[in-house]
Predict the structure.
Amino acid sequence: MYAVIKTSGRQWTVKEGDVITVNRMTAKAGETVTFDEVLMVGGAKVAIGAPVVKGAKVAATVKEHLAGEKVTILKYKRRKNYKRTRGHRQALTTLQIGKISV
């Protein structure tokens, strides 16, 4: 069985046991979070929501909080002696998908 969930403005296709990395969540490591915005549930029978599947939930366990890879932003204007470099590391949370219930 698989499901399509929505979190942080993105959609994820998940199965039980999958490990996904999403934008930072407020839950602490080891806590269980529940996703109520399930857009689709598939398996033997497919249920597509309009916009969400009623009564469907996906439980996930927070594994860790981490920072993503560094992204370098470079601004440059030729012949103007202008160059600016900035960096950014996105705050991320790793989740392990538990039970998918309809």
